[in-house]
Write a structure and sequence with these properties.
- The chain is elongated and about 60 Å long.
- Helix 3 packs across helix 6.
- Helix content is 78%, strand content 0%.
- The protein has 147 residues and is an all-alpha fold.
- It is built from 7 helices and no strands.
């Protein structure tokens, strides 16, 4: 019982050491010593952060695709920059995109597009932007595709 109390105390006082001790407990199958309450909280936060990260990257890609396709007034000056940004964000999202995270993006696709659209409308004052996403997730993630 003292190991559990010590690990729980570590969580508050020395997070890095708490992580290291938790990993050791799991590796050594000392499951009775694991601080499950805080471990579960950390794993839930990790999942939320991963979802937030890929959602943000997808939103950035969509913003830049919309700018690239619809903002004719700025296209000549900014098209290369927008295309480069699209490549950068695609590389980042595709690098770690698991089946689980892809499913999350598919399920949240309309909301992600809506947020991207709100941003582009505010930035550009364009009135010709489509209310529904004109791109598929496959197109958005395809490193060779541009509208």
């Amino acid at each position: 019982m003292t190991a559990i109390i010590d690990i729980k105390t570590l969580y508050e006082s020395n997070y890095l050491q708490w992580l290291e001790e938790t990993i050791k407990c799991l590796q050594n199958r000392q499951l009775a010593d694991v601080d499950y309450e805080n471990l579960i909280e950390e794993l839930e936060d990790l999942a939320k952060n991963e979802k937030r990260r890929v959602r943000s990257l997808l939103e950035q890609i969509i913003r830049h695709l919309l700018l690239y396709q619809y903002w004719d007034l700025e296209k000549l000056r900014n098209a290369n920059h927008w295309a480069a940004e699209i490549i950068s964000f695609r590389n980042q999202v595709n690098e770690d995109l698991s089946a689980n995270l892809r499913k999350y993006l598919e399920d949240d696709f309309n909301r992600i597009y809506s947020y991207s659209l709100d941003y582009v409308k505010a930035k550009t004052q364009l009135t010709n932007l489509p209310e529904l996403c004109p791109y598929t997730l496959e197109q958005i993630l395809d490193k060779n595709w541009l509208p």
